[in-house]
From TrEMBL:
This is Fe2OG dioxygenase domain-containing protein. Residues 203-320 form the Fe2OG dioxygenase domain. It comes from Tetradesmus obliquus. Pfam families: 2OG-FeII_Oxy, DIOX_N. It comes from the Eukaryota. Belongs to the iron/ascorbate-dependent oxidoreductase family. Gene3D superfamilies: B-lactam Antibiotic, Isopenicillin N Synthase, Chain. Keywords: Iron, Metal-binding, Oxidoreductase. The keyword Hydrolase does not apply. The keyword Oxidoreductase applies.
Length: 359
């Protein structure tokens, strides 16, 4: 996942002990947000639920989200087929600096870093970003970026590329609707996160499709982790503990494997099992900045210990615009000095992406 340092997230969580001792994730019916005919009071009620979940947990399920099942399940089904292709076929889309850090990552290329080094994550993935033409960026007088460029679409399976495009379009629409609800819950104008901040026309979204084979070795520490226990940072997991460093993440996951875990303020790891017809959503570090610390990203990890059963997930990261400069909303500072300096999102993203891999 697109992530920030776990140690930093731990410090953030420690500041909110007592409000984040959850033992399960809330489930929110967001139907009124996606229904233009919904009564205003219904929209307001959903907005308050989103606010409470973001403030008190940082993770939540959404149901009645309006994305058709053939879109959510179709992308997972096609992903299973693509990851089953021969290694040399997948390697034709290999992620590298020359590919603008887009494309395919074999097992072990993704890493989770910690204070004394890193550990390889046991998954393979395909990464897509909002596409930016470098020449057009230059002509517009905007700074260049190592991330700007075209995607490497998995056209070896045309149905997979088609499914991904439909999924991305649906998630952009849903992400915008959720951000409108969160804005209302914060007492901000409904369109606060739109436009040049994080409007869907400019959101520097990231779509990942991740294949988690069962862990090769499930020793005592991995077994303890599967039961919700803490393990050393040197222990290999499917994806090590981290916070997402963007804005809002929507996770579409296989229905038959429980592998995602979320850490509460008491240090317990809480399972986020797949629930039919839902996305798992979580907030990233940018919401901490925008809300002046009211919201905080939550540590999470993935471990697939199911014998002989692979897991695929398709997280979609709805992110700010690349050139957006994010700072605390004045309405949320409550007369106090802002706790965070303004951040250009593109610079923040570059600093994180370039540390995700050992190429």
């Amino acid at each position: 996942m697109f992530r920030s340092a776990a140690a930093r997230c731990t410090r953030l969580l420690q500041s909110s002990i007592g409000t984040r001792s959850f033992t399960s994730l809330p489930v929110i019916d967001v139907g009124p947000l996606v229904d233009p005919a919904a009564p205003r009071e219904s929209v307001t009620a959903v907005a308050q639920q989103l606010h409470k979940a973001c403030r008190d947990v940082g993770f939540f399920y959404i149901q009645n989200h309006g994305v058709p099942q053939h879109v959510t399940q179709g992308v997972l089904q096609q992903a299973h087929k693509w990851f089953a292709l021969p290694a040399e076929v997948k390697a034709s889309l290999l992620l590298s600096p020359a590919s603008h850090y887009r494309g395919y990552q074999p097992l072990g290329i993704n890493v989770t870093r910690h204070e004394s080094g890193f550990v390889q994550d046991w998954h393979e993935a395909l990464d897509l970003f909002r596409e930016e033409d470098a020449a057009a960026v230059k002509a517009a007088g905007r700074p260049s970026s190592v991330l700007h460029g075209p995607n490497l679409w998995p056209d070896q399976l045309p149905d997979f590329s088609t499914a991904l495009r439909a999924y991305i379009d649906a998630c952009l629409t849903l992400g915008e609707q959720l951000l409108r609800g969160i804005a209302l819950g914060l007492g901000l104008p409904e369109a606060y996160f739109g436009g040049q901040l994080a409007g869907p026309a400019g959101s520097y979204w990231v779509a990942r499709v991740i294949h988690y084979p069962p862990l090769q070795q499930v020793g005592q520490q991995q077994a303890a982790a599967a039961a919700g226990g803490e393990v050393g940072r040197e222990v290999q997991l499917s994806c090590g503990e981290h916070c997402d460093y963007g804005l809002l993440t929507l996770v579409n996951q296989d229905p038959h494997v429980t592998a995602l875990q979320v850490k509460n303020a008491s240090g317990q790891w809480v399972d986020a099992p797949p629930l039919p017809g839902t996305f798992v959503c979580n907030i990233g570090d940018m919401f901490q900045v925008l809300t002046n610390g009211m919201y905080k990203a939550t540590l999470h990890r993935v471990l697939n210990t199911a014998r002989g059963t692979p897991r695929v997930s398709a997280p979609f990261f709805y992110e700010p615009c690349f050139e957006a400069v994010l700072g605390p909303a004045p309405q949320l500072c409550r007369g106090q000095p802002p706790l965070f300096q303004p951040i250009r999102y593109g610079s923040h993203l570059e600093s994180k992406v370039l540390r995700n891999f050992e190429l």
